[in-house]
Amino acid sequence: MPQILRQFKEENASCVLRARTDKFSDVEMPQRQSLKAQARTDVRVFRDAHIIQIESILKIFYIFKDTLMGLIFGVEQMNETIERLNKLKKERNAVILAHIYQLPEIQDVADFVGDSLELSRKAAQTDADAIVFCGVHFMAETAAILSPDKKVLIPDVQAGCPMADMITAERLREFKKKYSGAKVVAYVNTSASVKAESDICCTSSNAVDIVKSVDAESIIFVPDRNLGAYVQKMSEKKMILWNGFCPTHNNIIFPEDILKLKREFPDAETLVHPECRPETLALADYALSTGGMCKRAAQSSNKDFIIATESGILYKLKKDNPSKNFYHASPLAVCPNMKKITLAKTIDVLLNMKNIVSVPDEIREKAYQPIVKMLKIA
Ligand code: 13P
Ligand code: SF4
Q: What topology does CATH give the domain 83-161+338-352?
């Protein structure tokens, strides 16, 4: 059995075991829910090669059902919904920030669509009274840490990030004791309480610069082992990596997917997100954050691109560059949590001013420092 398949099976087996034996008890709700949901998704998607096809098509159909309904029932109903949302936005003096992985209709109504670094900056700068954060929980939490005087709303409180849930503050504290003297760089895909235990944050677009800026003998990097391994290579720093990963990038996108497309489109530029496995990243012309991919696609004179990240980015890439071609490395690479955000839920939270994301003052004050440090450096 190829090494990559063996590793994948082991990872999923441990995920299944955790899901079955309810070993998420050290993790808080709703993070526990997102881990369980992700474990179940992984198990289902990968159980059998034939089931993958049927189940995933159904799953993708379910995820994009609002988009499809819009297409089937025409634009009129959609226009009414958008009008209602815009009216509510004005009444509440709210701004909608959306991650690049969001559904097309969410990207279309958002005031700003960006990667996690760009969204943090927008959240810190906006003078709106409310921020509707169309993304996953840690992103909304980061906005709440940066703008405590604003109401930050998330359309679905269950939209977590399984990678962020692979580390807790308690486990990080234990890890720090083991490697005393090391400084902690926390990927922004972490909870506020993990950030509060860290020296500085980073995102996938500034991770190399941030790690290079840290003055320490060794650096603990949490939680993404793939981004960590990439940064270690680029910065040549001594790094201790937490064993976390993104199920969408690590378990769905494989080198074979890219090699197949490279054979078909030999002149295409290959853009890979650093959350992918090292062997997948090794095939990249550019390792880039989602925002970095959008910039590269716009600036490059190349016409064809192979894209290795979550599916939502394809909509933005095609919309911004209609004359260029984008080939998705794996159309099954869908983040189920990102897709929990729908137009109906977005309207609902604005209408009822509910699902307010807040961080207790004690944690917020500690988590604020590593985020602001990051924003000052890169
Ligand atoms: P970006 O920083 O590229 O937006 O990535 C965030 C993320 O969650 C990727 O899975
Ligand atoms: Fe988390 Fe991966 Fe989804 Fe990004 S794509 S939010 S890292 S699970």
A: Rossmann fold (3.40.50)
